[in-house]
Amino acid sequence: MSEIYISTDVETDGPIPGPHSMLSLGSAAYRADKTLVSTFEVNFETLPDSTGHPDTMEWWQKHPKAWKDCRIDPQPPDQAMQRYVDWLEQLPGKPVFVAYPAGFDFLFVYWYLMRFVGRSPFSHSALDMKSFAMALMGTGFRDSTKRNMPGRWFDRLPHTHRALDDAIEQGALFCNMLAERPEGVSR
């Protein structure tokens, strides 16, 4: 079964799940050739007994449109995450979680999957775009930021802090990076 790359972005009200909530999740399923196969988007009800982290809530105050977008029609996490798993499992390929940075987005998605569905279609792994950029560019990890990446990797897509917009943008970036793998590396 071929791989399908699930570019994912989350918006949250704090740095870790449990004490804080995932507010929205956006995923864009891409084939390696940059074909956008399908998308998934949901806003979540906050977790019981969770609170917004002061630093994160201060950031949200500076982004009122993004805040408004992620509070439209919030869904119960158990129902939303089951719908997410159902969506992942109907895709034509084995899902590979992709994010920038994967360490943050995967933390929330994996926690929610295990807490509300009891399993993860991604297993225990995620592909971090910054680490992939480090390998492609031959730089140190801290130098492999978006501002140091070649301009040809970026499509003219918006980065709005709406989870689905950002997942689509980052998925196109990932596919452009993927296309530049050295010869002899499995495609």
Fold and architecture overview:
GO terms for molecular function: nucleic acid binding. The chain is α/β, with parallel strands linked by helices and 187 residues long. The protein has a single domain (3-178), classed as Nucleotidyltransferase, domain 5 (2-Layer Sandwich). Helix content is 37%, strand content 19%. It has 6 helices and 5 strands, in the order βββαααβαβαα. The protein has helices at residues 54-61, 64-70, 77-90, 102-116, 129-137, 163-178, and strands at residues 3-12, 22-30, 36-43, 94-99, 127-128. Strands 3-2-1-4-5 form a 5-stranded mixed beta sheet. Helix 4 (102-116) links the parallel strand 4 and strand 5 (127-128). Helix 3 packs across helix 4. The longest helix has 16 residues, at 163-178. The model has no long low-confidence stretch (mean pLDDT 95).
